[in-house]
Amino acid sequence: MYIGSDDKHVYALDAATGAQKWATPTGNEVRSTPAVVGGVVYIGSDDKHVYALDAATGARKWATPTGNEVRSTPAVVGGVVYIGSYDGYVYALDAATGAKKWSFQTGSWVKSSPAVVDGVVYIGSTDRNVYALDAASSARQWAFTTLREVESSPAVVDGVVYIGSNDGHMYALHAATGTKRWSFSTGGETIGATPAVVGGVVYVNSDLSVHALSAATGARRWTSDLNGTGGSPAVAGGMVYVSVGSGLCALDAATGVKKWASRMRDMGVSSPAVVGGLVYTGNFDKNVYALDAATGAGPASPSASVSTPAPPG
């Protein structure tokens, strides 16, 4: 398991035990989520760089500078790393060397993470637009304008782009043209999370709630008010897992009824991941937790603590 931390490091942890395997420093906080492809960990840092690290050892393969913080999560497709930066650009980098293949300028910083499908890069920008770019050349295919910043990252399923906006709407757009199929209003709560689209249902967090919507029409199936959410939802085994102000909770995917909640020492802000019957999540208390996905049961103490390694000598 690979994770970035505000202590400026990227960590590799044993998924079964939480034991630290390696820690690699960057020059600032790491708020990007890693992508792991072909034995390489790709991740951004607030030190303005995109990194490629050996997944087994943490050794740095390359680091490519951008003009500002990198909090976007990379998409790695066909030997190319696609990622956004707070300098307002979307970058395509050679996955082997880090060399820049192209960059596309938006009108403001890019926190959104790209989705790359059928040779097209879909990504949002705080200039209020959702963009579709040619993955080979960066040529703009279309741009859809919302009413406020787009910090959400797109999910692209069956020719439809699902993405949220700080204007309080969830949008479904035709992937080929950018025309709107439908939009859903949260009633004012911003959507910065990445939607999960499973079984014809769109699950997405807003500021305070989790919503389940028909992927075809945008009709609401249910809304669960959690009084504050963090990260993006994970959907597995008929459950929706969400970070909340007190830790982590699990909802029934069909009804939105809360199945369990696990209180932690501080606020839950990371996006949970579900693997092998366990749900993993990070917390503001500097720990990573592994909980039973069915019951929420976990260790009496955190599964792993991320902290700056002592200097050699």
Automatic annotation (TrEMBL):
InterPro entries: PQQ_b-propeller_rpt, PQQ_rpt_dom, Quinoprotein_ADH-like_sf, WD40/YVTN_repeat-like_dom_sf. It comes from the Bacteria. Residues 7-102 form the Pyrrolo-quinoline quinone repeat domain. Gene3D superfamilies: 2.40.10.480, 2.40.128.630, YVTN repeat-like/Quinoprotein amine dehydrogenase. This is Pyrrolo-quinoline quinone repeat domain-containing protein. The lineage of its organism: Bacteria, Bacillati, Actinomycetota, Actinomycetes, Kitasatosporales.
